[in-house]
Amino acid sequence: MEMLSSDAIAIRHGVAARLERLPLTRYQRSIFAVIATAWLFDSMDLGIMTFVLGSIKAEFQLSATQAGLLASASFLGMLLGAAIAGLLADRFGRKPVFQVSMVFWGVGSLLCGFAHDVTWLMAFRVLLGFGMGMEFPIGQSIVSEMLPARNRGRYVALLEGFWPIGFIAAGIATYFLLPVIGWRGIFIALAVPSVFVFAVRRCVPESPRWLECTGRLVDADAVVAKIESKVKGALGGVELPPVTPVTHSVADVNAPAGFRQLWTGGYGRRTIMTWTLWFFALLGFYGLTTWLGALLQGAGYAVTKSVFYTVIISLAGIPGFVVFAWLLDAWGRKWSCVLTLVGSAVCAYLYGHAAASHAPAAQLIATGMCMQFFFFGMWSVLYAYTPELYPTRTRATGTGFASAIGRLGSLLGPTAVGMVLPMMGQSGVFTVGAASFLIAALAVILLGVETRGRALEEVSV
Questions:
Q1: Which of the two ends of the chain, N or C, has the fewest CB atoms closer than 10 A to its terminal CB?
Q2: Is 156 part of a structural domain of the chain?
Q3: Could you report the per-residue pLDDT of 224-274, keeping only the tens digit for each?
Q4: Which residues constitute the domain of residue 79?
Q5: pTM here?
Q6: Residue 331: pLDDT above 80?
Q7: Distances, alpha carbon 75 to alpha carbons 67, 100, 260, 360, in Å
Q8: How many domains does the chain have?
């Protein structure tokens, strides 16, 4: 490994310290807003399949298994995109990969609207998912690397909150547009925002932390100087706070990193827990939410009514996210995680039996809202808990592989539902989903550790 000179180390530490001491202003918030906007539209494009799958299934005369494969296609693309995005971003920079991901997303969504058979539609959903999969790790990296540590956690959590909002927005858009332009028109319409966001993304600077890590110290210094100027301007010309040196742990820097470290030094137990948690939690979540609209139609509800019910049910995801974001600090990571998983299991079971028995609409909506409350609360817990389980030297590797295993569950979930549905019916589908959440909860109970109120270094083993 090439050793940095003492001058280079001083500049590198100076870049980090200069970023950390900056007050949060509308400039940093504008960068966050660009990424959050992309997050919102990505969530809409992914969630739209929940609301149009029934219409596609009817048009192409798909079997339940074929519909499940179609619903899983995006997750295959996301798995592939997420697997290579980090490598590309580390080599070519966050900004260009960030922009290229939008090209894949926009083109994929546009082509979905022109697919003449289910095979091509499935291929285009893989392309769309590839762009979304690329975007997730890059978006999180940019937010983490651009914002001060005192604001980083709150804004990363807020970024995840755009998922339920996007899912709900997809349902509202489908409710009003599906009878007018059909599912093809909706996919075409969702390609339009990608052009706007792609243009706006040109205003997002390259990560100075990435520039410093690749030895481009002059460029890193120039980017930080521009950021400082923007922040100072947003403050009305007020002088910025003095720079406080950032201390780096020599032991952590010199320690070995890589995939093997996830299984040594006591981390094997945590890795087994996180992989089990992510796989079964996402298998249950995407297996059920992707099919919500189609299952309601299969139970005899009209298309528009099934979409309307799904939108109402999904509204509970917003307070669910907020409540569990609060519980993480008030009660702790481990037991908040267990609570959201057990709650998801119980409510999924109750909702499935209500839908299968044609229960009154009020009962269906009530059980569905409880289910989505815990579903979306689960996301805030997963993204906050997982990175804290690994030391700095392997944090990205640990969270990255956990996410990849989760995407495998996302890929298998809708397909599994399509296979189980003909054999066990709707109540059986939700029972299997509930079992998935219980397995994830059991893994956390047996293998999880509490990280609340402890410095990251204290959590390391």
A1: N
A2: yes
A3: 999 999 999 988 888 888 877 655 444 344 455 557 777 887 888 999 999
A4: 12-235
A5: 0.71
A6: yes
A7: 14, 19, 26, 34
A8: 2
